[in-house]
């Protein structure tokens, strides 16, 4: 297989070719303009000199006296010393007899070239190209008039040899070519520097290798089960894999490529990535709800040379995990409830056995009736009014735990829950109620006087939850801190319960209030 040319070589050759063609075109135009300019300059120069000499008093006096003298020769020579591209100045009378010439032997002889008749006959001023005694030249003719400016008495011819004009042209072209060669050399050096810089920027990789690595990277990203989203410092999406597309249910876009370059907040609001761009600090394992999907997100800033240039987030779908956790939690709570029931009923069976052995049959029947009635009430409320099996399991488990701890946990008979608020999961309602009851169990006394009332009531607009206890309450200095993460008045790794409750309620635009009169009464209202 034929090996393709390297990118560095392509760039060098391309830049050299572009520079060479550009310089060639420029040289062509500049050389053409310069040669024309030199010839025009020579023409203007010799004509100006001819007019100047024709009006000089030395020339007029010599022609009026009809005798060439030393003053005329001195004047002409002095003019030639200070002029460029002027090779000779010839003064002649109306008959074409020379009064001055670079060659002294030609003075007094007739003017040669045949192009002088126009100035002699008509007094015309003009420039012609002809061959004289000095060779082929550009010649400017202008008439000379007497001191009264009435009669033509001769003419002046100022010439520039063609070979000198050509030399000037060639010299100018040579300078242009040398400048062009210098430009081409600079272009070649620049091509090498540019190619090396691009190669360094691309880590020495060829386009084919970059394409392959890009395809591999996108394949790897799309194969990752977690979602990945990256933004630049302006909050515009620069990367998104397929998992993000599916986890967040972005079906409104046919292809994820449509989202590239768009504002992240317009596509996925409230991700927290813009906050990371502002602070430059990573945020790990943050649980939140996006597009009605519970996710766990890690947000990390991308820092280059001490400046935040972007941010990247990994997204884990917690919905499936929550479903599994709900099944597992329900099973565990049911098992714990059965163990608690077993323990409590063993105590009750021992009580009944003692009453029978003491021949207290009426008291035994009454005790059995009271226990059956309480159990029947709890079972009826949970079975008939609470349609969420996980919440029912939780309440039953907490009831048994309270009984074992000698705490009266009552579930209001008016409690009723047929449907959860929109998009709320069983795990979330269980977290709210479970944490509130657990805090109440910690707050009340275990001497038989502790009481907890739970009321859960659903109407058309709101889900209302009330958990009330007669415990020790909340001290005034702690009331502003109860929802802070990590805050607790108890020892151990605690302080997350009320923070989780508040976060879930805020996610569903609900509100939570508490009253500390005769214990604590928690009142929660969540829109349906």
UniProtKB/TrEMBL annotation:
This entry's Gene Ontology molecular function terms read: ATP binding; phosphorelay sensor kinase activity
What does the UniProt entry say about where the protein is found? Cell membrane
| InterPro entries for the chain | HATPase_C_sf, HATPase_dom, His_kinase_dom, PAS-like_dom_sf, sCache_3, Sensor-like_sf, Sig_transdc_His_kin-like_C, Sig_transdc_His_kin_SpoOB
Can you state which reaction this protein catalyses? ATP + protein L-histidine = ADP + protein N-phospho-L-histidine
Keyword ATP-binding: yes or no? Answer: yes
Keyword list (alphabetical) reads:
ATP-binding, Cell membrane, Kinase, Membrane, Nucleotide-binding, Phosphoprotein, Transferase, Transmembrane, Transmembrane helix, Two-component regulatory system
Gene Ontology cellular component list:
plasma membrane
Entries under CDD domains matching the protein: PDC1_HK_sensor (cd18773)
Q: Which Gene3D superfamilies match?
A: 1.10.287.130, Histidine kinase-like ATPase, C-terminal domain, PAS domain
**Topology of this chain in the membrane:** Multi-pass membrane protein
Give the enzyme's EC designation.
Answer: 2.7.13.3
Any Pfam family from its record, for instance, is: sCache_3_2
- List membrane-spanning regions: 12-34, 172-195
Its main subcellular localisation, reduced to a broad class, is membrane
PROSITE patterns with a match to the protein in the record = HIS_KIN
Q: Does the keyword Kinase apply?
A: yes
Locate the Histidine kinase domain: which residues?
340-528
Per its UniProt record, what SMART domains does this chain match?
A: HATPase_c
Source domain of life: Bacteria
According to UniProt, the name of this protein is histidine kinase
From what organism does this protein derive?
Answer: Lachnotalea glycerini
């Amino acid at each position: 297989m034929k090996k393709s040319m390297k990118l560095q070589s392509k760039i060098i050759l391309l830049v050299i070719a572009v520079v060479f063609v550009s310089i060639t075109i420029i040289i062509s135009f500049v050389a053409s303009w310069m040669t024309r300019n030199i010839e025009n300059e020579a023409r203007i120069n010799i004509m100006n000199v001819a007019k100047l000499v024709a009006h000089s008093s030395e020339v007029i006096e010599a022609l009026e006296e009809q005798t060439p003298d030393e003053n005329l020769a001195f004047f002409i020579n002095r003019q030639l010393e200070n002029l460029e591209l002027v090779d000779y100045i010839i003064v002649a009378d109306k008959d074409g007899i020379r009064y001055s010439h670079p060659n002294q032997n030609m003075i007094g002889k007739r003017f040669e070239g045949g192009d002088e008749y126009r100035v002699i006959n008509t007094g015309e001023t003009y420039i012609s190209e002809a061959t004289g005694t000095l060779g082929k030249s550009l010649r400017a003719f202008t008439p000379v008039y007497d001191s009264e400016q009435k009669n033509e008495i001769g003419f002046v011819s100022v010439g520039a040899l063609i070979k000198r004009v050509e030399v000037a042209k060639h010299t100018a072209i040579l300078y242009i070519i040398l400048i062009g060669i210098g430009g081409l050399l600079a272009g070649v050096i620049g091509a090498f520097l540019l190619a090396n810089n691009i190669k360094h920027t691309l880590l020495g990789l060829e386009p084919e290798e970059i394409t392959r690595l890009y395809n591999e990277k996108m394949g790897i990203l799309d194969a990752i089960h977690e979602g990945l989203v990256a933004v630049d410092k302006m909050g515009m999406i620069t990367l998104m894999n397929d998992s993000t597309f599916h986890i967040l249910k972005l079906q409104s876009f046919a292809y994820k490529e449509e989202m590239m370059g768009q504002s992240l907040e317009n596509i996925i609001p409230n991700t927290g990535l813009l906050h990371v761009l502002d602070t430059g600090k990573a945020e790990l394992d943050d649980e939140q709800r996006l597009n009605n999907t519970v996710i766990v997100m890690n947000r990390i800033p991308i820092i280059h040379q001490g400046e935040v240039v972007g941010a990247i987030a990994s997204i884990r779908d917690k919905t499936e995990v929550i479903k599994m956790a709900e099944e597992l939690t329900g099973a565990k709570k049911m098992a714990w409830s059965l163990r608690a029931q077993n323990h409590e009923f063993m105590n009750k069976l021992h009580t009944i056995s003692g009453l029978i052995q003491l021949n207290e049959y009426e008291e035994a029947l009454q005790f059995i009736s009271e226990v059956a009635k309480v159990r029947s009430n709890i079972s009826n409320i949970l079975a008939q009014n609470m349609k969420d099996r996980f919440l029912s399991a939780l309440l039953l488990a907490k009831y048994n735990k309270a009984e074992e701890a000698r705490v009266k946990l009552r579930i209001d008979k008016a409690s009723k829950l047929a449907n959860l608020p929109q998009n709320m999961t069983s795990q979330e309602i269980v977290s709210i109620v479970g944490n509130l009851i657990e805090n109440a169990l910690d707050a009340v006394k275990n001497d038989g006087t502790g009481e907890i009332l739970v009321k859960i009531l659903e109407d058309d607009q709101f889900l209302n939850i009330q958990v009330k206890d007669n415990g020790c309450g909340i001290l005034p200095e702690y009331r502003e801190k109860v929802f802070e993460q990590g805050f607790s008045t108890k020892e151990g790794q605690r302080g997350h319960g009320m923070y989780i409750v508040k976060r879930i309620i805020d996610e569903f635009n609900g509100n939570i209030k508490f009253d500390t009169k005769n214990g604590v009464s928690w009142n929660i209202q969540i829109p349906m």
